[in-house]
Design goal:
The protein is an alpha/beta fold. The chain has 7 helices and 7 strands; from the N terminus they run αβαβαβαβαβαβαβ.
Length: 177
């Protein structure tokens, strides 16, 4: 069998169900500095980028960043990948759970790089296990660091679980000697 770019670059492990960002819609919640930088990096994937924040950007900024403002329900319904960069507040506490996922496009993935306390881990674990949520990548949890009894850890141990859990830190000073 001949090798081609789609096999050796994108899916060299020949796993089933691999998805890429190319030609897909990414929705960004919490469009501050990090959301802006993410939008710039998504420009080369030839997809659509939706964003949601408290105040809409000027049209010139939307055009430059190649993004389109969307209300939350529209963003969730249209996005193949939803990227949450939400800060923690009383309004956002555990706001990403079953109600949030039920409004997402079927088969979509959630990436959360926002604050801890925004996710409802039990409800997301159930959504992953039931197939309502295709995948989850997060570095923010209900509690930092992630608790050993987190339901997300149980899901992560399931064969072929489409979940990525990483610590929410850019640097650590650890003496391993």
């Amino acid at each position: 069998k001949k090798s081609d770019e789609n096999t050796f670059v994108v899916n060299w492990s020949q796993r089933k169900g691999i998805r890429t960002l190319y030609h897909h819609t990414v929705g960004i919640l919490g469009f501050g500095e990090i959301g802006t930088e993410l939008a710039r990096r998504l420009q080369n994937f030839d997809g659509n980028v939706l964003y949601n924040k408290r105040s809409r950007l000027p049209l010139a900024a939307e055009e430059q960043l190649r993004v389109r403002y969307a209300e939350l329900d529209e963003l969730l319904a249209e996005s193949d990948f939803v990227c949450s960069l939400l800060p923690f507040s009383p309004e956002t506490e555990k706001s990403i759970g079953s109600s949030f996922v039920s409004r997402m496009k079927p088969g979509s993935c959630l990436v959360h790089s926002g604050a801890s306390g925004v996710l409802d881990e039990q409800e997301l674990a159930e959504a992953l296990s039931s197939g309502k949520l295709y995948g989850l990548a997060t570095d923010g949890f209900e509690w930092e660091p992630i608790r050993p009894d987190s339901p997300l850890l149980e899901v992560a141990h399931q064969p072929f679980a489409n979940i990525l859990l990483t610590p929410h830190s850019a640097v650590a000073d650890i003496d391993l000697s």
